[in-house]
Automatic annotation (TrEMBL):
Gene Ontology molecular-function annotations: ATP binding; metal ion binding; protein serine/threonine kinase activity
Region (Disordered): 359-415
Protein name (database record): non-specific serine/threonine protein kinase
Record keyword Metal-binding present: yes
Length: 456
């Protein structure tokens, strides 16, 4: 007699390559006699991906702005036959600076030049060609903009084993962490507006919209230079695509909900970030207060700290509900306080200047020689203890002439009425989205909008 335990689910391949599935039901219920199946043999289990897709590939440079695209990386510390990756062989991993749903950022030391860098590494493999192309857009945008002093410098980018790596200069901190440890005066807010407006003016001149301006995406160098970073959701106003991704809801402009995307959205986000920094007020992500702020009904906690009348008026214009009334980044730079005072003053964010001021106050010494520029810090930095200011060796016009996108060849940006569409929440493929995302925060708005105002 055949027991039920002996009747297992096991495929038996026949001569015509078909399969017979043996059931655990009793023979009396089937009307036919079942023979005892042969002894199961072990077989290799295949997943959705073929073994070829799972094999390790050598690291390939993916820089889209140079001739090195697709070229395998070379290094005296890199052995391709080794099972470990280029990431593991050529870099000493010192510290994880942050981790989100899609990527993590590490502080590393390059073994070739012994210098410190930051590397952004994808947490998951590419989900397909479209996902890979979308991730490579960040590299293309970043390399096109990184010639500016107030934009984070990208060193190199490559893909390895279905993951993306972006190597950049290393900064001391981001502005959100800095504001948590240091009080932000109104004078510092002027400096913040000055430096980031310079970055936005350069970016907007190339018809790009950053879409995610916020304190977390503003890095601070040792010399006190503020650097705009994270170009993962940059929107090209000249693009034929009608899709755009939203940034952090705390700093999101109201007109984005109706699909109107313009450079004024970045100005709004910059103004909201400035208000948050100067007041230390936790901006809402949804609700009536979120709407009230965008109707210029600001909480008393914010209004009470704005004693600088010119700064207050400028910030209120920057977050105006009518995007046509907002000043451009160039208008902010032309404001009297910035034009006549701030641009001639040293940066209050400089780490070396704060340390020097502390030394001077305790020893009564004199100021030391000034230093210029921004460099990736090395293990034992040898820098003068002061910073002279913001004056660049090259003007923005000169930088634009060397940009990867010559503005003289650009077509005019689309008119406001062009059909634009915005995705305000993660797609089904973004199942790993969570609240502690380092680069993006999930929008609290659960709808899609298009130019007609209908819901998908």
């Amino acid at each position: 007699m055949i027991t039920e335990t002996e009747l297992i689910f096991s495929p038996e391949r026949t001569s015509n390559n078909s399969f017979h599935i043996f059931s655990s039901k009793k023979t009396s219920h089937r009307g036919t006699t079942l023979n005892k199946p042969p002894k199961p043999v072990s077989c290799r289990v295949f997943r959705y991906f073929t073994p070829a897709a799972a094999t390790a590939r050598s690291a390939n440079a993916i820089s889209v702005s140079t001739d090195s695209y697709g070229v395998a990386l070379e290094s005296p510390f890199y052995t391709k036959s080794d099972t470990s990756t280029y990431w593991d062989q050529c870099f000493e991993h010192l510290e994880c600076l942050g981790r989100g749903s899609f990527a993590e950022v590490y502080k590393v030391r390059h073994k070739e030049d012994n210098q410190l860098y930051a590397i952004k590494r994808s947490l998951t493999k590419f989900r397909g060609k479209s996902d890979r192309d979308q991730k490579l857009k960040e590299v293309r945008f970043h390399e096109a903009l990184a010639t500016h002093r107030n934009i984070l410098k990208i060193i190199h980018a490559w893909e390895e084993r279905e993951r993306l790596y972006i190597q950049t200069e290393l900064c001391e901190s981001n502005l959100l962490e800095y504001s948590a440890e240091n009080s932000m005066t109104q004078s510092m807010i002027w400096h913040f507006l000055y430096q980031i407006s310079r970055a936005l003016d350069f970016l907007h001149s190339l018809y790009y919209v950053h879409m995610d301006v916020k304190p977390e995406n503003v890095l601070i160098t040792y010399d006190g230079i503020l650097k705009l970073c994270d170009f993962g959701i940059v929107h090209d106003l000249r693009s034929a695509s009608t899709l755009a991704q939203d940034g952090d809801a705390r700093y999101l402009a109201f007109e984005i909900l109706s699909g109107t995307i313009s450079t004024a959205a970045d100005v709004f986000s910059l103004g909201m970030a400035a208000l948050e920094l100067v007041s230390d007020y936790d901006m809402p992500v949804t609700g009536d207060l979120w709407t009230n702020i965008r109707e210029l009904k600001l909480p008393t906690e914010i209004i009470s700290v704005l004693t600088d009348i010119e700064l207050k008026q400028l910030l209120l214009r920057m977050i105006h509900s009518d995007y046509k009334i907002r000043p451009s980044a160039k208008d902010i730079l032309d404001s009297p306080t910035i034009h006549d005072q701030i641009c001639h003053m040293p940066s209050p964010f400089a780490y070396n200047q704060r340390r020097h001021e502390h030394t001077v106050s305790s020893t009564g010494g004199n100021n030391s020689p000034t230093s210029h520029g921004c460099h990736t810090p090395i293990k034992k930095p040898k820098r003068p203890p002061n910073y002279c200011g913001y004056h660049d060796e090259h003007s923005d016009d000169e930088l634009r002439s060397h940009s990867f996108h010559d503005t003289s060849r650009l077509t005019p940006p689309p008119v406001v009425g062009d059909p634009l569409r915005i995705r305000l929440f993660p797609t089904d493929s973004d199942e790993e989205m969570n609240g502690d995302h380092f680069y993006f925060r999930k929008s609290p708005l659960q709808f899609k909008f298009d130019s007609s105002g209908t819901e998908d």
